[in-house]
User: Fold this.
Amino acid sequence: MSANPLAVAEPWDLVADGYAEFAPTIMRPFSARALEFASLSPQSRIVDVAAGPGTLSLLAAGHVAEVEAIDFSEPMIARLAKDAAAAGWTNVRARVGDGQNLPYESDRFDAGFSMFGLMFFPDRARGFGELFRVLRPGGTAVVSSWAPIADSPLMRMMFGALTAADPNIQEPQPNFLSLENPEVFESEMRGAGFEAVSIQRHSIALTFAGPEEMWEAMVRSSAPLELMRHSVNAQVWARRAAVMKAFLAEKYRPNCPLSTTAYLGIGHKPQT
Assistant:
């Protein structure tokens, strides 16, 4: 089992509603790019693995015949189902489940996606293998993973605030055995059986009206921040929150764009 605290459901359960409100600001541009790579049609059936609140699922729903969305966080799936119903998407089915053991028959989907989910799996090989299994021959998979944090000023700013409040929380160190290494990313997709694998780099930039707005975005959607909040009493949390707000007030200039970068891995299941 992975020691990564974000490889289990609890922190994602805690932030489900806030994540659904803020995460699309970051996730939607990456999801839109992923959908472009898959060359979908109105007849396409797709699966969204580790779907979270369904940013990609909801974006795809109006362009395909069927969306199956799965995530191990029950509150995330509940939020996804609620938002799909509110939007009138009757072709979206959301369920709780494990991306390393998908409850779908083989050769079912025209395209499969995992946006910033499979990267956390304790067994990525199983995750890639299951995605490969459920695709029809000729189907396309698109998986995203964050680039090294050094390439993402937005993430560095957020982790800087966390570290200021709790020195035990350090900025993630480069992990060249993870999907932030494009060579590992390509190798693991090919190892699952995918062909014509391509790893594409994609960046976006966000701006905030001021440090207060950035703090609100963090506090509503950051799983590491929620883990911190739930690990201490109210007084300690109040002190740490004050430190983080002060850090952002000092470091963030209003309306200054902060970029973040991801890799999109695209692979194809052979026709035969």
Remarks:
- The first strand starts at residue 45 and ends at 49.
- The chain has a mean pLDDT of 90.
